[in-house]
Write a structure and sequence with these properties.
The protein is α/β, with parallel strands linked by helices. The chain is built from 39 helices and 16 strands. The strands form four sheets. The protein has a six-stranded mixed β-sheet, sandwiched between helices. A hairpin with a 3-residue loop joins strand 13 (788-790) and strand 14. Helix 8 (112-129) packs parallel to helix 10, helix 10 (152-168) packs parallel to helix 12 and helix 18 packs antiparallel against helix 19. The chain is globular, with a radius of gyration of 31 Å. It starts with a helix and ends with a strand.
């Protein structure tokens, strides 16, 4: 080029370093009437920007203009470079044949150095198309030439691309090595956008290696870098959605993918990205429980990939479409053949999804009662159980379990289920966030159900108990992973509390709150993102429930444990006690859930005066619940205390309402194992008691002043002293804590369920920061025991957050209660505790001491004792 061309050529690397700056300079250059070569560069820069961040149609117009200007200038290197850029844009536009033809012309022009850059971009296009072997061939040809030319930027790009191809075919170790080498080279350049891109790739690599927290942290870091550069993040959304699905957050992944599709359509963006986003949405819709959307998005993705001549991608979209149709109830012989063909095709591509397709073929064959055909496909899928990411290995163990079941081998089923669940146990220990630990259990739901089915068929009640416990409340079995000492998280929690308090005050005063609510939602998103990035606290203690140890503990206590197991909507009652485990039949879970909702409505009505006429209806519902949930086991209960272990969907049942439990000492636990651990938890040596009274209670927390005389070593926090920091410091390691404060349950985000204090809400996230939560905790307000079922029978909420942190027992309410009626209940409860009773014993006696009117009875039933203290 002529004088000054060096400055003009600097625009090309600038578009990947500071894209917006490069765009503005290129537009100003064109306004100056430059010569053809310079104008070619300017149009190429604008075309790259529009291709990657804007309107693809506009990008093609600029790139064609750049090509024509390069030809007019008589510069083979310039023309070859533009042809390569145009080829990438055409491939992204779905015009694959034209794009590859442009590359072919570009390879035939220019110097060896320019040809190497063209080969890199053709390799990138082959990667987009899923033609991984051709991509590797081109990038391997390009790297030595680029290294010889000491072209650091393009060598780094080539290493990044080669790593991406390795990752696509499951060669994670090779990918990590190339990404590390590329990142080292990027550190010597000013290519900020490329640096952000490699952080995004490292996130995906961490995920492929099974490290979800690291992946989420790196994705967030990449997003911050892109935001600073002002560039869109469509590809990041695709990759992040994959991680969200694996973390059990499929509904969030679907929402993010659909939002990205809308944004891409709004700017006329790349059709290749549109197809990938449609596939991403389809992959999320299935586990999110929306099969119709899965079919719709997958079918659209198949059509686009086919038009774009992207067979690798089309095969993956066809797999998702087949899975969605099977989930919707379709099954026939053609589907078996198609799934098997997909497995072969995906295997030829080196795709890690091949076992998933083979598993689908086996499932359909089993559904059609074709055992020999099913065995063939399941055996192929089962090979994945030996290596790879946790999800792939679980797929293999599911296939192995289905093979064993088809062969009639209960022992084989149980062995496969045990090994598969062990994989997920190991995976869960890497996750620090309780939400991720709970949601990842969904991946083991089928294995757990297969094991329970085999145990039930064997007829052994103890074996069924053992396998029911194997995956119940598993998120609580691992050691608690407290949030990291992150100053940003602490600052966000403080800001959230302040904003929420200001919003509540504004609502009371009738002032508008939209701006405050937007800031509150922003802070919630930031807090949640920070907590999801937390790493796990290490391996658990490795203990599994020993039914003999449970029975022995119950024998020493003179009590019984009732565990409710659900298979195919039928409740099975396991009654443990008296030296044995017995099994009884219950009713349908769906009917019990409906009755429980009616009971909750009745309790809400009885919390207010004038609802006494509903008391007989509530008692009748209690009798129906007993028949559905306990069946004949109700008549077999001995005289001692009873521990109830219900499934997650029944966490809101007021167990004291059931006739056979009404006058008993009853406690509730998420699992038998959780109860045993709570039973073995020693109280702290301090003997310290804490009373907290929050603002805005109808009675002013009238029980609190009357309790101060009951206890010796006492901390009382009320008024302006009942602030979050002071309350948390007082609660840490306390023997007994009583909090009288308004409770708010957040079904949409259960870890933001809270207690209202003087300076705003005290959330579950705050409680998780305790070194040791109170040994006993009493929450005297509404909704403090409500929990959100997630994953496979896991629960999220205040109670489940406290149990792994040292709390052995909680008394809380799962329904709205009458504040005035709570006062005598709490006074009687504490009187029993002062006499040495357990929480469950004291609560039973407190209910009996209440007046006999409907409001007081309903108040007593609304409270439950959790745990074993």
């Amino acid at each position: 080029m002529t004088a000054g061309s060096g400055t003009v050529l600097e625009l090309l690397p600038m578009v990947f370093a500071t894209p917006s700056v490069a765009l503005r300079r290129a537009e100003r250059l064109l306004e100056s009437g430059p010569p053809p070569e310079h104008a070619s560069v300017a149009h190429q820069v604008i075309g790259i920007w529009q291709r990657d961040f804007g309107d693809l149609g506009l990008a093609l117009r600029h790139l064609r203009r750049a090509r024509d200007l390069a030809a007019r200038a008589g510069s083979p290197d310039r023309e070859a470079d533009v042809l390569a850029t145009l080829g990438v844009a055409l491939v992204h536009a779905g015009r694959t044949r034209e794009g590859l033809a442009a590359f072919e012309r570009g390879v035939g022009r220019g110097s060896a150095h320019t040809r190497a850059r063209v080969l890199y971009r053709r390799a990138y296009s082959f990667w987009v198309l899923g033609r991984h072997r051709e991509a590797l061939d081109d990038v391997r040809r390009a790297i030595p030439v680029l290294r010889q030319a000491r072209d650091v930027i393009w060598v780094a790009r080539s290493l990044t691309l080669r790593a991406a191809v390795h990752l696509a075919v499951g060669a994670v170790d090779r990918a990590e090595a190339d990404f590390a080498a590329a990142e080292q080279l990027w550190g010597t350049t000013g290519q900020d956008h490329d640096k952000a891109d490699v952080v995004e790739w490292r996130a995906l690599t961490a995920f492929r290696a099974g490290d979800i927290p690291a992946a989420l942290r790196l994705f967030d870091e990449a997003a911050e870098r892109y935001t600073a550069l002002g560039t869109p993040t469509f590809m990041l959304s695709i990759r992040r959605c994959e991680v969200l699905r694996a973390a059990g957050l499929a509904a969030e992944a679907l929402a993010e993918a659909d939002a990205a599709i809308a944004a891409l359509d709004g700017v006329g963006g790349q059709r290749t990205r549109k197809a990938e986003l449609l596939l991403t949405a389809a992959q999320a819709a299935g586990p999110a429980g929306d099969p119709d959307t899965a079919v719709d998005r997958a079918a659209a993705a198949v059509r686009l990939f086919a038009r774009q001549r992207r067979p690798w991608w089309e095969a993956h979209a066809r797999l998702v479409l087949a899975e969605a149709r099977f989930a919707a109830g379709a099954r026939n012989g053609r589907m078996v053949a198609d799934a098997a063909a997909l497995a072969g095709r995906l295997a030829s591509f080196g795709s890690p999804s091949a076992p998933q397709a083979a598993l689908l073929a086996g499932r359909i064959a089993l559904a059609l009662d074709r055992p020999a055909e099913a065995e063939l496909h399941l055996a192929r899928a089962a090979r994945a159980r030996r290596s790879g990411a946790p999800q792939a290995r679980v797929t293999g163990w599911v296939a192995q379990a289905l093979r064993a079941r088809a062969a009639g081998s209960r022992r084989g089923v149980l062995q496969a289920c045990r090994r598969g669940l062990d994989v997920l146990d190991e995976h869960r220990t890497t996750l620090g966030a309780p939400e991720l630990r709970a949601r990842v259990s969904e991946q083991g739901a089928e294995l757990a159900a297969l094991a329970q089915e085999a145990a039930l068929a064997s007829g052994g009640a103890r074996r069924l108990l053992e396998w029911s416990e194997r995956w119940r409340a598993a998120a609580l079995a691992a050691p608690a992973a407290r949030p990291p000492e992150d100053p940003g998280l602490l600052a966000d929690l403080t800001s959230f509390r302040e904003i929420a308090s200001r919003a509540e005050e504004a609502r009371r005063d009738g002032r508008p709150v939209p701006a405050l609510e937007r800031e509150q939602r922003r802070l919630e998103r930031e807090i949640r993102a920070r907590t999801l990035r937390a790493r796990g606290g290490g391996a658990g203690d490795g203990r599994r429930l020993d039914p003999a140890a449970l029975v022995e503990r119950l024998e020493r206590d003179g009590g019984q444990l009732v565990e409710l197991v659900v298979l195919d909507d039928r409740v099975r009652v396991l009654l443990c006690g008296g030296g044995r485990v017995r099994r009884f039949a219950g009713g349908r879970l769906s009917r019990a859930v409906a009755e429980a909702e009616l009971v909750q409505a009745g309790l809400r009505r009885l919390a207010h005066p004038g609802g006494a006429a509903r008391l007989p209806l509530l008692e009748a519902a209690g009798r129906r619940l007993e028949e559905l949930l306990l069946g004949e086991a109700a008549a077999e209960l001995g005289p001692g205390p009873v521990v109830v272990v219900p499934p997650g969907r029944l966490h809101r049942v007021p167990w004291a309402l059931l006739p056979s439990l009404r006058e008993r000492v009853v406690s509730v636990s998420p699992s038998a194992g959780t109860w045993l651990r709570a039973r073995e938890t020693a109280p702290p040596p301090t003997g310290r008691h804490v009373l907290v009274r929050g603002p805005g209670l109808a009675t002013g927390g009238a029980e609190v002043p009357e309790l101060t005389d009951l206890y010796g070593r006492l901390t009382l926090l009320e008024g302006d002293g009942a602030r979050a920091g002071a309350v948390l410091r007082a609660l840490d390691g306390a023997s007994l804590s009583h909090i009288a404060a308004h409770g708010v349950f957040r079904a949409d985000n259960p870890l933001f369920s809270s207690l209202r204090l003087a300076d705003g809400p005290l959330t579950v996230h705050d409680f998780e920061r305790l070194e040791r939560s109170p040994y006993r905790l009493i929450l005297s307000s509404c909704d403090t025991a409500r929990l959100a079922p997630v994953g496979a029978d896991e629960l999220l909420g205040l109670v489940t957050a406290l149990l792994p942190l040292g709390t052995a027992g909680v008394v809380a309410s799962s329904a709205p209660v009458n504040d005035a009626a709570v006062v005598p209940l709490m006074l009687a409860l504490h009187k029993g505790l002062a006499c040495g009773l357990s929480l469950a014993e004291a609560l039973r006696d407190a209910r009996a001491a209440l007046p006999g009117d409907a409001v007081h009875q309903a108040t007593g039933w609304a409270f439950t004792a959790f745990g074993a203290a």
